[in-house]
Design brief:
Blueprint (H helix, E strand, L loop, with lengths): L8 H11 L23 H4 L28 E4 L5 E6 L7 E7 L13 H8 L12 H7 L8 E5 L4 E7 L4 H17 L4 H18 L2 H13 L14 H6 L2 H11 L5 E7 L3 H12 L23 E7 L7 E9 L7 H24 L7 E11 L3 E10 L4 H18 L3 H20 L6 H11 L9 H14 L2 H12 L4 E7 L6 H13 L25 E7 L4 E6 L4 E6 L7 E7 L13 H11 L7 H7 L8 E4 L4 E7 L4 H13 L5 H20 L1 H11 L13 H6 L2 H11 L5 E7 L3 H10 L27 E7 L6 E9 L6 H25 L7 E6 L7 E9 L4 H18 L3 H18 L3 H9 L7 H7 L1 H6 L3 H11 L5 E8 L4
Parallel strand pairs: 2-6, 7-11, 14-18, 19-23
Antiparallel strand pairs: 1-2, 3-5, 3-6, 4-5, 8-10, 8-11, 9-10, 12-13, 13-14, 15-17, 15-18, 16-17, 20-22, 20-23, 21-22
Helix pairs in contact: 1-7, 3-9, 4-28, 11-12, 11-13, 11-15, 11-16, 12-16, 12-17, 13-15, 18-21, 18-24, 21-22, 26-27, 26-28, 26-32, 27-32
């Protein structure tokens, strides 16, 4: 319910450090250019008799210099060659294991003539290694059920490279493959010249796909703020000249000097015995050797610290939003990860949270020039500490926003925080630690393995949720608003600030004006914040509880259906897939199907108004205070065929969650502040639609639905700006408040406790209208005539184009089994796209294919392929795609292609059976109108497993024909 955090400078820096990673969802499957030697036996067998390398002093673990104890059950080890490993047994999901190879080396380790090769190496380990020829690895994995993107991935950042592999079962064959692959990544890459040359185009395509205005601005900011730092000269994607021309020996140099056991940590998390995993690690990696002259950590250079107030402006007409920030930069001070040092970070962390909340609440005041704000402290690369105060500016009114930012920053420094602010922030933080403990047993192995990998360079102790809670609770017990105030003052004392404005245009003299406004604001007196009282929640009694009219157990699915005497249908499924978590979704009325056709975009406006308007007598801000420390969340959306209320909670807060959702149904928050917040965001929305392919994609989405206003987006901001609260109220009072309700609840609940809570909330409201099928006319849209070509443009200097090809197909409505086969067909076609467009042509980093359509609209379905590349290549890419589809339609797929697509799909189906989101969204939601969903769920795996090559090829011939193709060409069009 909070406004999203602004796109701020420090967030961009953090993205560059951690999130701006060069993901590789589709490792290459390039064919060899010469006969390849037969694959060797797994490494542990082949080299069992090889003498071990010289033993090194074991590298230390963070817990060795800390009072913090690592999580019970975790095994930490060191091989004689210096490689470390962590094994953490975890049973969710069962019979699966996730492995990660962390290498403490990234783009910062590159020489000038190697810029981009750390990331390039991440690609090359898939392109031929000691045990796998270039065209062997991917098919081998697929035949075992390992899907790319879903089960295998990798990333390269500034200071680390991580390889990730999630194994869908624990068979010896699967484990042998996984450990052999990881060993090959460590030192077995062949790095053949011909394979490097073939991959250059793929890397350049990825560089093209990463290009954006935000990325370019980030590079400018790095260079300006840290001009003497190596970071500004080592962005992971690298330099085009190096990518095009670097010789093999520069790859080999980086690989051999930095892919060393002394820099490696191997991570195993899953349903596996530690002793067995440890034995495999020793066999696989024990013979790794360190080079005679390993690479060293680079000098990252000196930091530029602000002196006084230094104003900086970054501008670009395509920037999505105007941002203001105060930034301080200082050298990082390394401290051991101890309970004392963790506790010492909490006061400033709480102070930053309180100031961020204060900005967000100020943004809701009438006429406020900001959309929200945040405060943060971040450590990057064990090199630099950043402190920042940031706000998103409404309507480019930065001159008005500067005093707001300055004075709230100064108010916090001078007066600190109120008791109510502190109580709210403290309760929320403590609750997050408590919930982590309660949900511990359902932590997912893949997420845990990745989290561990990303903590390696930070030197954090792998502590349990219980330890984290104990440390935090002890520290929070003694904290006060005054201590948080002191920490905030101390952090910001005696420092210069960079005052940064990021905006579309830089008027003449803007830098001087920016500094002058800030200095003038600093001369104004600020007053202490006022204490506030937290109201009690007003909606706890909805009248006489209802009754259960009928109760039915859905055979084989563990679902119970209740029909209440007021007409509400309730579907319940008790699971332990997410410990101490409950998901709730209410499906109400008909959504966009009944949106007035003369009010395009009203559903989007209604979502913003209701979510931003609170509930009845409570504003969003009041609800945040009331629910502080509670597990109550709720959202409103207008979907294709329903209005939705959704939320997540815990057993202890289930009653309050149901009360909140019932109140939102009966008393939507029709507040003007929701309207004003949305209106301030509208220019940002249309700025992005104008200058990115998102605008063209939205136009395409409307066009293939016959430009039906219910599913279209306004072409002008004036449409959104012209809507008022009454437009929403009139529509929702008629179509949402009294409409039929299907309530779906899944998770860790006690049915006997749950039922009375449901009857006292949703069961106590007035009788609902009887459910009726929508008029046939509401279910029809006109798909474009085929074949044809449509050209779309957007305004941008970023040279990225899109080729989208669509083929009209059967829709999923009442054709679910056929649509499963279309999805499998799309996976097969996606593999062919990757082989041809990515691997052979090097023209697109990640071409993809899918089957899409509507489960509501009549006969609305299509096959789609999307290829991103250079604008000048878009038409050719579309023609190549059409040609590949024609070949598949006429010649069909092979048994091997079917097998390689089917095995990963079945593995994902097995995994989804322990996924609450699958059961809630795909099975329970909408089952009141379509009870066939239960039958489809029961037979899903068997049906998919039974798919034959003849079925797939028949569909290929029917739907991938050339005369059914629509080509949509999307290109940037730079304007003055």
């Amino acid at each position: 319910m909070r406004n999203p955090a602004p796109i701020v400078l420090t967030l961009l820096l953090a993205i560059a450090a951690t999130v701006f990673i060069l993901n590789r969802p589709n490792p290459p499957e390039a064919p060899p250019t010469e006969p390849a030697p037969p694959a060797a036996e797994p490494i542990e067998e082949e080299e069992a008799a090889t003498p071990p390398p010289t033993a090194l002093e074991p590298r230390s673990w963070p817990q060795e210099s800390s009072d913090l104890k690592p999580e019970e059950g975790a095994v930490f080890g060191n091989l004689p060659n210096g490689m470390r490993y962590i094994i953490l047994p975890n049973g969710e999901p069962p019979e699966r294991v996730s492995i990660r190879l962390h290498i403490a080396a990234g783009s910062l380790m590159e020489a000038e003539d190697q810029r981009g090769l750390a990331h390039f190496l991440e690609h090359m380990v898939f392109n031929g290694s000691k045990n796998f020829t270039p065209d062997e690895l991917i098919p081998r994995m697929q035949r075992l059920g390992i899907a790319f993107g879903a089960h295998v991935n990798a990333y390269t950042s500034f200071d680390e490279t991580v390889y990730m592999l999630d194994l869908p079962d624990l068979s010896d064959e699967m484990l042998d493959l996984g450990f052999t692959v990881m060993r090959d990544f460590a030192d077995g890459a062949l790095l053949k010249t011909e394979e490097i040359d073939k991959e250059r185009g793929v890397i350049l395509s990825e560089k093209t796909s990463r290009d954006s205005v935000s990325y370019r601005l980030m590079q400018q900011q790095f260079s300006t703020l840290m001009p003497d730092s190596l970071i500004t000269k080592r962005f992971p994607i690298g330099e085009e000249e190096v990518i095009k021309n670097a010789p093999r020996e520069r790859f080999v140099d980086l690989y051999e000097r930095y892919y060393t056991p002394e820099r490696m940590t191997f991570i195993v998390v899953g349903d596996i015995e530690p002793a067995a995993a440890e034995e495999r690690i020793k066999n696989a990696f024990g013979t790794l050797e360190n080079p005679a002259a390993p690479g060293t950590d680079p000098d990252l250079g000196a930091l530029k610290q602000a002196e006084g107030l230094e104003a900086l402006i970054f501008s670009d007409k395509e920037v999505p939003a105007t941002e203001l920030g105060l930034l301080t930069i200082e050298p990082y001070e390394k401290k051991a990860d101890t309970s004392e040092n963790r506790a010492a970070k909490l006061p400033l962390g709480l102070a930053n949270a309180m100031l961020g909340t204060r900005f967000d609440r100020l943004a809701k005041k009438e006429g406020a020039p900001i959309l929200g704000g945040s405060a943060s402290r971040q450590d990057l690369f064990n090199y630099v500490t950043l402190g920042s105060i940031d706000v998103s500016v409404a309507d480019d009114r930065w001159q008005d926003a500067v005093p707001v930012m300055e004075q709230e920053f100064r108010r916090a420094r001078e007066f600190g925080f109120t008791k109510a602010e502190f109580a709210e922030a403290k309760a929320n933080l403590l609750n997050s630690y408590e919930q982590a403990v309660k949900s511990k047993d359902s932590r997912k192995s893949d997420g845990m393995a990745t989290s561990i990998a990303r903590s390696i360079n930070d030197g954090r102790v792998l502590t349990s949720p219980e330890t984290n809670l104990a440390v935090a609770a002890a520290a929070l017990e003694d904290l006060t608003p005054e201590i948080c105030h002191a920490a905030f003052k101390e952090f910001w004392a005696d420092k210069g600030y960079f005052l940064i404005l990021t905006t579309k245009e830089q008027p003449e003299g803007a830098k001087e004006e920016l500094a002058k406004i800030y200095e003038q604001s600093s001369e104004q007196t600020v007053e202490a914040p006022e204490e506030t009282e937290v109201a009690a929640f007003a909606y706890t009694d909805f009248g006489q509880p209802g009754l259960v009219e009928s109760e039915e157990e859905i055979e084989g699915l563990g679902i119970t259906r209740l029909v209440l005497d007021n007409g509400v249908t309730v579907n319940l499924k008790q699971t332990d897939f997410e410990k101490n978590r409950i998901r709730i979704a209410a499906r109400i009325g008909l959504g966009k199907l009944v949106q007035p056709k003369d009010k395009v975009g009203l559903g989007d406006f209604a979502t913003a108004v209701v979510e931003g308007g609170g509930i009845g007598v409570h504003s969003v801000d009041e609800l945040q205070q009331i629910f502080a420390g509670k597990n109550v969340s709720f959202g409103f959306s207008v979907d294709e065929d329903s209005f939705s209320l959704s939320g997540g909670t815990t057993p202890e807060d289930l009653g309050l969650q149901l009360q909140a959702m019932t109140a939102q149904l009966l008393h939507p928050g029709y507040r003007q502040e929701g309207v004003e917040q949305f209106r301030k965001a509208v220019p940002m929305i249309f700025q992005q639609m104008k200058h990115t392919a998102a605008g063209s994609m939205q136009k395409m989405s409307s066009w293939i639905r016959g430009d039906d206003p219910r599913f279209a987006f306004p072409e002008s901001a004036d449409v959104f700006l012209g809507y008022e609260v009454d437009d929403v109220r009139e529509w929702l009072d008629a179509e949402f408040v009294p409409a039929p309700i299907e309530l779906n609840i899944i998770g860790d609940f006690d049915p006997e406790t749950l039922k009375p809570l449901v009857l006292a909330t949703f069961g106590a409201i007035e009788k609902r209208k009887p459910r009726s099928a929508p008029d046939d006319a509401l279910l029809k849209v006109e798909f474009p005539e085929t074949p044809q070509t449509k050209n779309l443009t957007y305004e941008s200097k970023i040279p990225v184009g899109q080729a989208v090809v669509l083929w009209k197909a059967i829709g999923p409505k009442d054709n679910e089994e056929t649509f499963r086969r279309l999805n499998l067909l799309a996976d097969i076609f996606g593999d062919r796209l990757r082989e041809e467009i990515r691997e052979k042509l090097g023209a697109s980093y990640s071409p993809n294919s899918g089957a899409s359509g509507s489960s509501t609209l009549d006969d609305f379905g299509f096959m789609i392929a999307m290829i991103e590349g250079k604008p000048e290549d878009a038409e050719q890419l579309a023609e190549v795609t059409v040609g590949l589809a024609k070949t598949l339609a006429s010649g069909g797929a092979t048994d091997d292609e079917l097998d390689r697509a089917l095995k990963p799909l079945l593995a994902d189906i097995d995994k989804s059976m322990r996924d609450n989101s699958y059961w809630l969204g795909a099975v329970m939601s909408g089952s009141t109108e379509n009870e066939r969903k239960f039958e489809l769920a029961r037979g899903r795996r068997d049906d998919v497993a039974s798919i034959t090559l003849d079925e797939v090829n028949e569909l290929a011939g029917k739907y991938y024909a050339t005369d059914k193709a629509i080509q949509v060409i999307i290109k940037p069009e730079e304007t003055e």
